[in-house]
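Chapter summary example.
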Amino acid sequence: MAISNDYGAFIEKSTISPTPSSSFPSLKGLTFAIKDIFDVEGRVTGFGNPDWLRTHSAATSTAHVVSSLLEAGATSLGITIMDEMAYSINGENAHYGTPVNPVASERVPGGSSSGSAVAVAAGLVDFSIGTDTGGSVRVPASYCGIFGLRPSHGVVSTVGVTPMAQSFDTVGWFARDTATLKRVGCVLLQQPHLEATEPSQLIIADDCFKLCSVPRELLVQSVVQSVDKSFGGNTVINKVDLGAYIEEHVPSLKHFMTSETQREFCIPSLMALSSSMRMLQRFEFKMNHGEWVSSVKPEFGPGISERIEEAIRVSDEKIDLCRLVKTELLTALSTLLGENGVLVIPTVPGPPPHLQADVVALESFRSRAFSLLSIAGVSGLCQVSIPLGLHENLPISVSLVANHGSDGFLLSLVDSLSKFM
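The structure predicted for these 421 residues follows.
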C-alpha cells in the first residue's frame, strides 16, 4: 500500500497560530489537529460529507475548545478527515478517503475521529481533538495504538461543535504519551494542577473480557501490576460480573431485552444497553439533521446511508425509557465505583478489522464493541483507552473507567501507571 506523507489524515492543512492569553502558556510548543466537526471562524465545517460542506456557511466564530487550546499556546496544523456525520466507528470515508492506520496499514483506523487519531499515531502532531458519541475517540485510539480520553459527559464545552446526539456527545483528545494527554486535560478540564491519587479499588469486569479475542491476562495483568508498582500493592482488587450487576440495578433495561440480546457470545444487559443507546442516538440525530437529510438528499457512503435511513425512520416511542436507562445506569455505576474507584474493561473486542470488511461479517464484532462502548457512553462516565503494544503484530488496548467528574483523577492515574506499563 502506498502511504502519503500525511497518511491521508488531513482534509485541509493550514496553520493556526497560538493566541496565548498568559505569559506562560501551558501548551507552548505543542502542535495539534482538529476534527472536521469543530467550527473555525471563516471556514465551513465539513462534518465528513461534501453535500454538508456545499450547503452550509462559514463559521462566524471558533469552537470554544479550539480557542482554549490556541490560548494555551498550542499551534494547529490542520483539519482532519472524519467519518460522515460522525456515524461510524470504522474510519472509512467514501468521499475523502480513509486515513491509513500507521501501526496496521491493512486495517481500519477507527472512527469517526479517524484523521485525528492517525495524525497523532503517525507523529504528525503532538495531540489532536475529536468527538466521542458512541466510541469515536476510544475506538480509533485503540486501533491506532495511542491514548484517547472520552471525558465525563458535559464536562468539556461542546459550543461550536456540530452535534450528533447531545445526550452522548463529548469532546475528547488523543496523545502518544500520558504527559501530553494530561497537559491537554489541564487546559480543557480547567484544572491547572492534577495530582496522582491512589485508586480506592480496581474493579475487573471479568465478564466483559469474555467478549474480547485478546487473552484476558495480556490486558488485565498489565494494569494490576502497574497499580501495584505505583502504589505499593495496597489497592483493593475486586472482580465483578458487570452484566449481572447492571441487569439488577438498571430495571428499565428490561424494556430493551429481546431475543437478539440473548444470543451467543453476548452479555444480554449490555446488548440491551447498547440498543437503548443507539435508539436515543438515532432519535437525536433525526431531530438535529433529519430535515437537512430530507431536503438536500445528500449522497452517503455504504453503511452510513443505511444507518441514517434507519435514524430518519425512528419513532419517539421508547425515548423516555432510553433517558431513564441513562439516569439509572449513572446511579448504579457511581455506587459500584464509589470515590476514586476504577473499572477495568476492554476498549474494543479485539484488534482493528480489515479495510473494507464485509458488513455482515463485522456485525458480531460491532455488536460486542457497542456493548463495551455503551458502559461509559450511556452512563456519561469518563474513560481512557490505554495502548498495550502489539499482539500478533496488531495493536491492543485496555480501558479504565472512573466516576463522572473524576477526569482529572483518571488522567493523573494513567500518567502514574504508564511508567510501569
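To summarize the output: The first strand starts at residue 10 and ends at 16.
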